[in-house]
TrEMBL record:
Belongs to the glycosyltransferase 20 family. One of its GO terms (biological process) is trehalose biosynthetic process. This is Trehalose-6-phosphate synthase. Probably involved in the osmoprotection via the biosynthesis of trehalose. Catalyzes the transfer of glucose from UDP-alpha-D-glucose (UDP-Glc) to D-glucose 6-phosphate (Glc-6-P) to form trehalose-6-phosphate. Acts with retention of the anomeric configuration of the UDP-sugar donor. It catalyses: D-glucose 6-phosphate + UDP-alpha-D-glucose = alpha,alpha-trehalose 6-phosphate + UDP + H(+). Pathway: Glycan biosynthesis; trehalose biosynthesis. InterPro entries: Glyco_trans_20, Trehalose_OtsA. GO terms for molecular function: alpha,alpha-trehalose-phosphate synthase (UDP-forming) activity. Coiled coil: none annotated. The keyword Transport does not apply. Homotetramer. Keywords: Glycosyltransferase, Transferase. It is an enzyme of class 2 (transferase).
Length: 468
């Protein structure tokens, strides 16, 4: 079995007390690395200021070597805050109005990918399999190929992939697509993302769909497919059952005093539809006055990328919106919206998911959205809650028991909340069972195995006959 090298922008290094990083993705990739032996390489999150970063910091844990590099202030500004998060992120989430393209930031993005390649290359052995993650590192394979590496290299995009009309607004769209062609396998979250990718190749005349998931572009034949990421379903379900006895969860249960609880959990980001969700909750209460003082909406939104102006502005907007709604419809003994602007531990969140009658997951655009899957996995099988889910989340392609909504339609979302609260126990169980069965059979470990299986089997030669 070939050794595995995982490359991502950030690396979930185990804590000093030996605890594994939280989160299904980290658990699955660490399991694959532990089984095969390997390296997880990425940015440390630290800056070396104006100085050239020192050598890689390496930490061994079992069969896994965690290899971290610092970046300079300029690198962080141009590669991470600049091109990755102010060009690629908004464009992939269909927000052309927020994309701020600058040639300096674009150059920084490609420069840092070259830097990553040069730091990674000395660690790579001829038979290693390399798995690159997410939009920060699209050009990495091209840089490694330029250095003569012929290893199997796969790429998985965790965020949406936009249609051609949106992608071509980015001045370097051709370079980005050329970068993807240097992988042996390109993985997307949904079949819609894959269709958008194939549609761009066809429309721009730079590639052919050869069938069976094979594509020919820029002189290379490679595979692309949809690999919807899962969670550690059974483990999270057991986690949530145990978390119901958590002190904070018990306090929350007592504090809602028999009211139904609706929960939303999102990183603070304009793609998550939080403003629209608050408006929908207000519309639900005003349209259904019988629910006044009978329901509490808990919105948990940890701060995110607060150094980027759009996120700082959004934090202010969400807080103001929550305050306005509470002021408009709240009473002396009832605060309709509880807005928490900080992180809550995963075990408490699992218990809160189980406590909530409605999981309100309404992003304007999302690659997958694992909160939707965690909400389903956390439910009490005897009295499960109802998932109200945006049709623009990748999870909507799988979770057929959810109430699907258009988050731009405030009234429609409000009506779905009312329908969920009034739903019979029998229908709730039926909807939940269908979703839970799917999540149990399509968990994160299967996702990991499926991708690595297809990467090993993918074609690895281009027209020149060079082995890729």
């Amino acid at each position: 079995m070939s050794r595995l090298i995982v490359v991502s922008n950030r690396v979930p290094v185990p804590s000093k007390d030996g605890g594994a990083a939280a989160g299904g993705l980290a658990v699955a990739l660490q399991a694959a690395l532990q089984e095969r032996g390997g390296i997880w390489m990425g940015w440390s999150g630290e800056s070396s200021g104006d100085r050239e970063p020192g050598p890689l910091s390496q930490q061994q844990k079992g069969n896994i070597t965690y290899a971290l590099t610092d970046l300079t202030d300029t690198d962080v500004e141009e590669y991470y805050r600049g091109f990755a998060n102010r060009v690629l992120w908004p464009i992939c989430h269909y927000r052309l109005d927020l994309a701020e393209y600058g040639r300096k930031e674009m150059a920084g993005y490609f420069r840092v990918n070259r830097f990553f390649a040069h730091r990674l290359a000395p660690l790579i052995e001829p038979d290693d399999i390399i798995w690159v993650h997410d939009y920060h590192l699209i050009p990495l394979a091209a840089e490694l190929r330029q250095m003569g590496l012929k290893n199997r290299i796969g790429f998985f995009l965790h965020i949406p992939w936009p249609p051609a009309d949106i992608l071509v607004t980015m001045p370097v769209h051709e370079e980005i697509m050329r970068g993807l062609s240097h992988y042996d396998l390109v993985g997307f979250q949904t079949d819609y993302d894959l269709q958008n990718f194939a549609g761009y190749l066809r429309r721009e005349g730079i590639g052919d769909d050869l069938g069976n998931g094979l594509f020919d572009s820029h002189g290379r034949v490679f595979k692309a497919g949809a690999y919807p990421i899962g969670i550690e379903t059974a483990g999270f379900a057991a986690f949530a059952e145990k978390a119901a006895n958590n002190v904070m969860v018990q306090k929350t249960r007592r504090s809602i005093e028999g009211r139904d609880m609706i929960i939303g959990v999102d990183r603070l980001d304009y793609s998550k539809g939080i403003i629209e969700r608050l408006e929908a909750f207000e519309r639900f209460i005003t349209s259904n006055p019988a629910y006044q003082n009978k329901v509490t909406f808990l919105q948990v939104t940890p701060k995110s990328r607060s150094e980027v102006p759009e996120y700082e502005q959004m934090q202010k907007m969400v807080a103001e919106q929550a305050g306005r709604v509470n002021g408009a419809i709240g009473t002396v003994d009832w605060v309709p919206i509880r807005y928490v602007n900080r992180s809550i531990s995963r075990n408490v969140l699992a218990g809160l998911f189980r406590l909530a009658t409605i999981g309100l997951v309404t992003p304007l655009r999302d690659g997958m959205n694992l909160v939707a899957k965690e909400y389903v996995a956390a439910q009490d099988p005897d009295r499960p809650g109802v998932l109200v889910l945006s049709r623009f989340a990748g999870a909507a392609r799988e979770l057929k028991g959810a109430l699907l909504v258009n988050p731009y339609d405030v009234e429609g979302t409000a009506n779905a909340v009312a329908r969920g609260l009034a739903m019979s126990l029998e229908e709730r169980r039926d909807r939940w069972r269908r979703m839970m069965d799917h999540l149990l059979s399509h968990d994160v470990s299967l996702w990991c195995k499926d991708f690595l299986r297809d990467l090993v089997a993918a074609p690895s030669s281009d027209r020149s006959g060079a082995q890729g």
